[in-house]
Structures are given as structure tokens and as C-alpha cells.
Amino acid sequence: ESKRTGKNQIKEFEDESKHQILRTVEIEKALAQALDRNEFSLVYQPKVSLTQNRLEGVEALLRWNNRELGHVSPTDFIPIAENTGLIHPIGNWVMRESCRAWVRWNKSGVKPFTLSVNVSPLQFAREDFVESLQAILDETGMDPMFLELEVTESSMLSYEESTREKLTQLHQFGILISLDDFGTGYSSFRQLRELPVQVLKIDRSFIVNLFTDRNQEAIVRSMIQLGHNLGMKVLMEGVETSDQLEWLLNEQCDYVQGYYFSRPLLEKDVVKHVKSVTTYIEFGKTRA
Ligand code: C2E
Ligand code: MG
Ligand code: MG
Ligand code: MG
User: Fold this and answer.
1) What is the pTM for the complete model shown?
2) Does the interface predicted TM-score (ipTM) exceed 0.95?
3) Among 204, 244, 261, which residue has the most ligand 1 atoms within 8 Å of its CB, making it the best to mutate?
């Protein structure tokens, strides 16, 4: 009986991985045509400055809707785009489109805010990354002083002299660098000390069980202090509740992002959001 169960489990596992492989192949095929077929779009999630009680900026997040596959999550297709090299044209599209959106927001007369764009380690590793970014800035009229690149720890992993040179060059343009998904990768203290990174963006997984595990509070508190001691700003992502917000206010976290304040918005709703929400935290409601 137990042997049988074991066999069934193996069969289930095989079916499951076959299904996974088929899906990956399907995604790969569809992804190759997605740009030409205009299947991508962008949404923008607000980042709130707790110290200034106002919108700090928005992060561009890629969306893909395919006729056969439906809506596919970036966590599923970005790794495939990276494996196939499609990340380069897709990444350039994201950069160009989000910069165009920023220029349109800026023309609508609202106070300028930062645009954050996720950059894959593979894009960043390309020798011509800085030049192609510069070309997009020139073409779109995006002000580099309002651009922030979110790079994950793994882009820094292959920590070479060229990484530091690129970051320094970008920094000289006025572009901000934030270290995305901080805490999940392998950045060493040496990297944190030597790389010109201005913002630590603590991964959402750290807030999820903040109150269920005593040690978690100590860890997140230490991450915030580490960032501050290195002269960086700290952002907590995935904030969903007022309890979490209150805790972060107490710990002097600089920025937060998450469903508590806003889900990702369509381009046209960003200006509405900016005009309708003038303050985010009503002091007195929260204890901080
Ligand atoms: P990320 O850059 O860490 O983005 C945060 C993700 O968390 C987004 O998922 C966002 O929608 C989600 N999120 C934000 N607030 C909350 C919250 O309060 N609760 C929960 N449960 N989730 C929240 P999304 O849009 O599915 O993106 C997933 C990941 O895909 C991103 O993680 C990023 O690594 C990657 N990605 C998205 N767009 C791009 C892109 O244009 N280029 C590259 N290279 N990667 C991208
Ligand atoms: Mg990000
Ligand atoms: Mg992140
Ligand atoms: Mg993340």
C-alpha cells in the first residue's frame, strides 16, 4: 500500500513537472512575440515618504496579457525573459514607456516625483547599459534627477570593478540606485559599504511575519539601522496593515510601499492619486 502511494506521488510529481515544462515552453514562444503584439503594459505603485508624509514616487511594474495564456505574472515570465535574452528588448521597452509616462505626468503640472524602474541583473551587466539608458533619457526627455533604478542584490553579486564604475556614472547623472529585495540575496557588508547605493528596499517577506516571530522584529529593526548607519534611506515594501505602518514609523523607516496605501495604478490614475491624496498619515490616528 505504501509503495503504491509512493508511486502515485512520483507520478503526480512527474505530471506536475511536465506541466511546468510545457508552460515554460508556451510562455517562451508567446513572449518572443509579445512586444510586437503590444501585449505589455505598465502599472505604477506609489512609494510614500513617512518623514515628509507625501508621495515620494512610483515604481513601474510590468504587466503581460496574452490571448492564450491570459495574465502572466512577472515573477513567472521575467526569469524566462532572462534565460532567452528577451529581457533586453523588454527592459528597454519598460524604460522608454515609463519615462514617457513620467514626462506626461510632469506636463500635467503636478509636483515632480521619482520614477523607479526595475532593472534585471542581465541588463545591468551589459557593457552598453549606461549608453542605452542615456539614449532613452535623451529621447524621452526624462529628467535623470527623478529616475531611480531598482537593482537586486544578485546584480551586485558578480561584483566587479565595472559594476562600481557603472553605478558611479549613473550616480553622477543624478540617478538614484536602490537595492531591491534586500535581505533575500547575498550582498556582503563590503559591497554595502563600497557600492554607491542610496536606498535599501527590504523584501516583502520580512514584513509578512513581523509580529508572529519576536526575532523578526529584531532583524527588521537591525536592517533599518544598518541602512541608516551607512547613510542610506530605507524602504519597506509590502506594507498592508496599520499595525505594520505604526511599527515602521516607530523604527524611523523612511519610505513604505504596499497595498495599505495603494495598489499599483494605471498611468492615468497616478495623477488622480497625486491630486486627491495630499497626506498619507493622519497623526493621532497612529500612535507614532
Ligand atoms: P518587486 O520589484 O520587489 O516588486 C514588488 C512586488 O510586490 C510587485 O509584484 C507588487 O505588485 C507587489 N506588492 C506591492 N505591494 C504589495 C503588498 O502590499 N502586498 C503584496 N502581497 N504584494 C505587494 P509584481 O508586480 O507581480 O512584480 C513581481 C516582481 O517582478 C517584481 O518584484 C520585480 O522583481 C519583477 N518585475 C516587475 N516588473 C519588472 C520590470 O519591468 N523589469 C524587471 N526586470 N522586473 C520586473
Ligand atoms: Mg522593485
Ligand atoms: Mg522588491
Ligand atoms: Mg520583491
Assistant:
1) 0.93
2) yes
3) 204
